[in-house]
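To whoever is covering the structure queue this week,

Two jobs came back overnight. Logging them here so there's a record in the thread.

Job A:
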Amino acid sequence: MKTIAADAFSHADTTGEQDKPPWKERVGKLFMARFNARVRLGAPLERIPESLHRTANQVALALELLKDFRAGRYREIPWGSLAILTGALLYAVNPADVIPDALLGIGALDDAVVIAVALRLLRRDLEAYCAYKGYAWVDYFASPVSPLDRVRGAGPVVVDPVDVPT
């Protein structure tokens, strides 16, 4: 004799469960979806060295801009931009930060964020200074291009009918 609870479970298994794939297949698809998302998120990590190199070049350009401004050779930068740049550099040099520099690994994180925000805010001024000095714009401001973007721009991909699975 079936109990009411057993009857309810057997009824739940039959209503709407035929169209769903087995639980192993559902879990496998969920796992693969999460794995593929992590693979896609890891793609920008390949460009980190290029981005750091570009940021270091921009910091060097900003320091050169301050040096030329102080010497009186370049005065085309607005006072507000000069204040942002000077404040960001002083914050990075000052050991009293939001996150102390003594904490290894994360101590310089707030300094890097402040410098990155300042460089982003001053991009047009730095581009103008770069043009004034006659430097190549690509060395300081070109976005890194992933190998996939180079392949995408190469032209259409032709697939032979033999390569297409049937």
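Job B:
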Amino acid sequence: MRSTDEPAQGPADEHGSHPLLHDERVTAAGLLVETCAGFREAVEADLEARAVTGSAFEVMLRLARSPGHRLRMSELAAQSTLTNSGLTRLVDRLEAAALVAREPCPTDRRGFFAVLTPEGLDRVDQVLPSHLATVDRLLTSILDDDELATFLATLRKIRAVVRPGSDPEVAARVADGDPAEPLHLSAVDPGG
């Protein structure tokens, strides 16, 4: 594959299209966008049929998978697909529904933890089987074990570049005041 430093090769082809329109990088980016959009649409439709939004489930699932079912709001913001203000509004709604609680951070007077309540964990438990069936139907059942392992490692490698704060370890460092430095790709743990 060509690097971004290489000049475009030759003039337009016989149909008048520029060679860069057929570049594999354009194809890769387009396939990624289309796949993510289609996957998200299907997952959100399934979740909405269970009376939960995709964003709410994303936040509750992240909390359910975190130690103590809690994350600092800054960590949760770094790991979610929401803006800071969008996350605050969502946590307000989840708190009003008794699915999430806010607790002050003992080491940072301005910081708060978002904590999944027992009711929130019950809600995740209710929705998770259907969610996993959707994920299996759209993704994991069409990949063999080696393909899935490679796919996960590749996603982690890309995430380390495009959203380094989404990595839980990086998000924790940022919440502690350390700068979010992109990881070197050779240091990305395919199992993390």
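Note for Job B: The domain at 24-178 is CATH 1.10.10.10 (Arc Repressor Mutant, subunit A).

Please reply-all if you pick these up so we don't duplicate work.
Q.
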